[in-house]
């Protein structure tokens, strides 16, 4: 048997995709399962976006495009950055990739050498540390629990910085915590970073439009424009326009980094699907009101699920400020079940397995996101599902 590379031995498959697959398998076996594991909107892609893709196919727009994206889509992205974020980018500072995941992958492979450190606040999106490991870098995890709203402080950031630090990753609104950094919090982090000119900043704004408690979206560059020359702004159409399957992510940043990322992409996937690019162009240029009903639904579900979770003894959950996940502190509930001998060990994995078996509800253990003692419940599913799921969880823990 062939020995695999050290690179691949260092990583694990995406735990969120694994939970989704396990729930689907149990369902296929005829079990009554409610999946709250998935990280994608339950809504359909808006019709005008689908129509653009169909028109692209019928026009024969079905060939290779420029590796880094069509001029039309790049222009739409430039306009979007100006309109929503007040950022000025030219076409050579923009790269379109096959999903936000590939954007981060290209970036990491372009700037990380073996042993370089990447500071990642936890709870984090599952792919950041593993992608850093693929690049043979070292993830440096900075923990922020529920007591601090799942947001790291400037002091924590500064403490984590070493001469080997090469990049800092920030994701607000956060998957999984739902936390959103304020302007002042971003400014405080930015002021630390200003002191260390060798550190790049990757800001993952994937959930920019899914703000659940009002207010306007802010990014670390709005709070600290002086970081512009070493910040890469990552975004995509997956979550905002319910387009997860179309695989379009994009980013803006310094031209030499964007060129390096494009070179990596040119030797891996080449361009993202031409048809998806045509659709994404219309998503960004078209009427943005299609986002509103989705966000309204997420707000209603957020209120419901947070209330229902907090009503369960041993469970504490903050109202999410963005994205579409509830990240509940279940440490007390875990201890309770463990003390009663209902679960064998006091981990969130055992707890999540208990929930799957005894309530038929699939959730993702917090340890998958670097935060032991929590579970993530996606509310990107309709209210009836959520009501049933929460009733069953309450019963299983009652
Ligand atoms: N960034 C965050 C924080 C995410 O949650 C996700 C998807 O789950 C992505 C990036 C990647 O999205 P895409 O589906 O466009 O690759």
UniProtKB/TrEMBL annotation:
One Gene Ontology MF term: transaminase activity
InterPro entries hit by this protein: Aminotransferase_I/II_large, AspAT/PAT-like, NHTrfase_class1_PyrdxlP-BS, PyrdxlP-dep_Trfase, PyrdxlP-dep_Trfase_major, PyrdxlP-dep_Trfase_small
Cofactors named for this entry: pyridoxal 5'-phosphate
A Pfam family of this chain: Aminotran_1_2
Record-linked CDD domains: AAT_like
Annotated Gene3D superfamilies: Aspartate Aminotransferase, domain 1, Type I PLP-dependent aspartate aminotransferase-like (Major domain)
Keywords from the UniProt entry: Aminotransferase, Pyridoxal phosphate, Transferase
Top EC class of this enzyme: transferase
The organism's place on the tree of life at top rank: Bacteria
Parts forming coiled coils: none
Domain Aminotransferase class I/classII large: 31-393
Its EC number(s): 2.6.1.-
Family: Belongs to the class-I pyridoxal-phosphate-dependent aminotransferase family.
Entry-linked PANTHER family: ASPARTATE AMINOTRANSFERASE
Name of the protein: Aminotransferase
């Amino acid at each position: 048997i062939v020995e695999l590379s050290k690179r691949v031995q260092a990583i694990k498959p995406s735990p969120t995709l694994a939970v989704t697959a396990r729930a689907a398998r149990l369902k296929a076996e005829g079990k009554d399962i409610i999946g709250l594991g998935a990280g994608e909107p339950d809504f359909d892609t808006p019709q005008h976006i689908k129509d653009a893709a169909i028109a692209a196919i019928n026009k024969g727009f079905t060939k290779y495009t420029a590796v880094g994206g069509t001029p039309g889509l790049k222009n739409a992205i430039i306009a979007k950055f100006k309109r929503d974020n007040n950022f000025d980018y030219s076409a050579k500072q923009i790269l379109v990739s096959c999903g936000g995941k590939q954007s981060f992958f290209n970036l990491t492979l372009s700037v990380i050498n073996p042993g370089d450190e990447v500071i990642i606040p936890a709870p984090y999106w599952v792919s950041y540390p593993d992608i850093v490991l693929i690049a043979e870098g070292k993830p440096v995890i900075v923990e922020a629990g529920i007591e601090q709203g799942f947001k790291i402080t400037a002091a924590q950031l500064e403490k984590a910085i070493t001469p080997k630090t090469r990049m800092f990753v920030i994701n607000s609104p956060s998957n999984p915590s739902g936390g959103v950094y304020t302007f002042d919090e971003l400014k405080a982090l930015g002021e630390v970073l200003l002191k260390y000119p060798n550190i790049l900043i990757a800001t993952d704004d994937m959930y920019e439009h899914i703000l659940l408690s009002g207010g306007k979206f802010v990014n670390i560059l709005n709070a600290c424009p002086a970081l512009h020359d070493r910040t890469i702004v990552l975004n995509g159409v997956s979550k905002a326009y319910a387009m997860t399957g179309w695989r379009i992510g994009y980013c803006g940043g310094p031209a030499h980094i964007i060129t390096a990322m494009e070179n990596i992409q040119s030797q891996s996937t080449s361009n993202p699907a031409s048809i998806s690019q045509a659709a994404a162009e219309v998503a960004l240029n078209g009427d943005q009101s299609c986002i509103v009903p989705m966000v309204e639904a997420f707000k209603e579900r957020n209120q419901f699920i947070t209330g229902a979770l907090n009503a369960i003894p041993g469970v504490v959950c903050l109202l999410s400020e963005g994205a579409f996940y509830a990240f509940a502190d279940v440490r007390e509930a875990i201890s309770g079940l463990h003390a009663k001998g209902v679960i064998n060990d006091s981990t969130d994995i055992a707890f999540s397995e208990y929930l799957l078996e005894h309530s038929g509800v699939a959730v993702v253990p917090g340890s998958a996101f670097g935060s032991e003692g929590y579970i993530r419940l996606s509310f990107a599913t309709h209210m009836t599902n959520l009501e049933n799921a929460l009733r069953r969880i309450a019963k299983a823990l009652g």
